[in-house]
Amino acid sequence: IEVHTRLRVGRGIGKTETEASTELFRQLKRRGQPDAPPPMVSDGWGGHREALLDVYGTVPAYSGHGRLPSRKRPGRHWRYLQMVKQRVHGCVTGVEAKVIFGNPTQVLAELQPHTAYVERTHLTSRLMTGRLVRKTLGFSKRLHMLRAASVWEDSVYNLARHVKTLRVEAYAGPRRWLQRSPAVAAGLTDHIWSIDELLSYVPVPNNT
User: Fold this and answer.
1) Residue 160 to residues 152, 170, 202: CA-CA distances in angstroms?
2) Reading across the β-sheet that carries 40-43, which strands appear in turn?
3) How far apart are CA 113 and CA 91, in angstroms?
4) Left, alpha or beta for 185 (phi > 0: left; psi -120 to 50: alpha)?
5) Angle (deg, nearest 10), helices 116-128 and 143-155
6) pTM for the complete prediction?
7) Segment 35-64, tens digit of pLDDT
8) Phi-psi region for residue 32, left (φ > 0), alpha (ψ -120 to 50) or beta?
């Protein structure tokens, strides 16, 4: 999720967090981040570091001495911050900011040291898609059905739902606030779409 607009820019689905992260970063690479990952904040779980190196890392040039380098390295200007939760008996007692890539001073000054927005959008996902609800029989048994449901949910969230924290004050007219969707805040469209409008533009998968 993009912090300032709440826009969902990609979604990774996989059997492990590393697989899901790798799929997500490959999407970002195709969608406007071809050379380096954007500044990023995540929690301490998952294989985000390994996935970043796999998708964006580069192998240094051979110096002419020793073995040929094969291990990928991060870019000089990467900025990645992890918020590692401290737990005691399963209860969160604190959070530690851990800089993975980049200059610590610059990273901490530029990035917001929390994961509140992405955690909130995860809750929204579970409310909008029964296939993601924990400890129920409604979970997806087939991967392609989960992907289809996730694509539809992301489309509705980005284009057809307003987010309260994105509203702006109206200086004219009867309404005090102008509601905005993440796509409106990101400048991708000029209005909140209706479901009818969304269905007329998004191809719906079918089994026929």
Assistant:
1) 11, 20, 12
2) 40-43, 80-88, 91-101
3) 20
4) alpha
5) 110
6) 0.84
7) 999 999 998 877 899 999 999 999 888 777
8) left
Phi and psi at residue 27, in whole multiples of 5°?
-65, -45
Judged by DSSP in three states, 130 sits in: helix
CA dihedral sign of residues 113, 109, 24, 185: positive
Q: Which amino acid is at 73?
A: R
Give the amino acid at 20.
A
**Distance between CA atoms of 59 and 53, rounded to whole angstroms?**
10
Burial of residue 2, with CB atoms counted within 10 A of its CB: 0-12 exposed, 13-18 middle, 19 or more buried: middle
- pLDDT confidence of residue 63: 73
Q: What percent of the chain is predicted at pLDDT more than 90?
A: 57
157 close to 184: Cβ distance less than 8 angstroms = no
For the chain, the first-to-last Cα distance in angstroms comes to 33
Query: Percent of the chain scored above 70 by pLDDT?
Result: 97
